[in-house]
Each structure stands twice: as C-alpha cells, then as structure tokens.
Amino acid sequence: RGESRLWRGPPIPKMAAQQSHYDLFEQLELPQCECLNAAKDHTLRSALTPSDEGFLQSDADEELLISLRFMQAVRLSAIVVAGPAASAPSELRIFANPPAPLDFDSGRSNAPTQTLPLTPADVAREGRPVELRFVHFQTVRELTIFVPGNMGNEEETVIARLRLIGLPVEQTGAKRSEAEQAAASKADWLGSGIHGA
Q1: What is the model's pTM?
Q2: 10-residue averages of pLDDT along the chain (197 residues)
Q3: How far is the first Cα of the chain from the last one, in angstroms, to the nearest whole number?
Q4: Could you give the dihedral angle defined by the CA atoms of residues 64, 89, 141 and 19, in that order, rounded to the nearest 10 degrees?
Q5: Distance between CA 69 and CA 73 in Å, rounded?
Q6: Closest by alpha carbon to 80, among 114, 123, 112, 136?
Q7: How many helices (H) and strands (E) does the chain have?
Q8: Which of 16, 82, 86, 190 could potentially form a cystine with 12 if both were Cys, beta carbons 3.0 to 4.6 Å apart?
C-alpha cells in the first residue's frame, strides 16, 4: 500500500524530493471533495484517481471551482496538472484553509493564498510538479482551487490529472484509528456522494 502512494511522474523539485514528498491522493477525504461546473460525464474523481483514464471537464463555461478536504493536515509542496495544450488551465488560484466555502464570485475576487500561472510545458504529458510557496502550505486541511480559464480560450477547460504533492503533518495526541480513517475516506457524511464526481 505504501508503495502505491509514491510519486511515479516526473521528478519532484529537489526540496520536496529530499523530504520524500509524494502524491497525497490517499490522504483525500473523497466524499467531501467536489467540483462546481464539472460536466456530468467528466468529473473530479477522474482527474484525482491515479488509475482512472477519464478527465475532468468544465460544463457551462471555462471556469472550475474545486474543493478538496484531507483526512488530516498536510504540508503541500507542489501541484501537478496535466491536460491538452489548448484546454488545460492557464492559471490556478489556490486558497488554503478558506474560512468559508467559496463560490465563483469569491474565487474571482478574494485574494488567494497563491496564484499559480501554468505554461504548456507544465501541463504536457503527465504534467510536471509546479512548486508552491511552501511556507504558506504548512498545515492544510482544506484546499480550494479556482480555475478562471484555459490556455486556448476554449469554451471548456480540461484537467486530465490533478496531483497534490506533499506530506501529512505529524500529529501529537489522539489520532484516528484505521477504522475511522477508512470511514472518513469511504463514508458519505452529507448523504450525497462525491460532489461533481
């Protein structure tokens, strides 16, 4: 199980590699993750799941609003985004631990923790890790990513893969049991499944 979590894509930036950072997919509380404006047949789960051959695609226009929740606090060092050259995101507006849920208006107007411009080289093939300002992502429990548009000004934005690279924060005191962690990753606390997936 531990082996499957190791990053198998392009080399992670040196700082992250030295600290053994990896793909945090298994740390996501999937039932609490959602994507607004996702097409019905091309959902967030497809972009997050390593073995899925599908992709995430916007529906009504080019914008996407992705909300992610982790089972425990994590340190994020990089994000990997892959997608087609014309329709992959041109920029990510990243909000760490937003005090309230964001909508499209607040995604456009609120000051993000970091704005991450993407280049065609960043999103080619499997994507390559783009470093975050590590000091701002030391204890992340929730992450919202607003995608305002894509590289070719297409009507739909496509994300083939979305990877979050980092490490869980070592906790002191009471920890979740394995059963509690399994319940958090599989259970549907809101009774509505993985939103937008």
Answers
A1: 0.79
A2: 48 51 95 96 94 92 98 97 96 97 96 97 95 95 98 96 95 64 60 48
A3: 24
A4: 170
A5: 9
A6: 123
A7: 5, 10
A8: 16
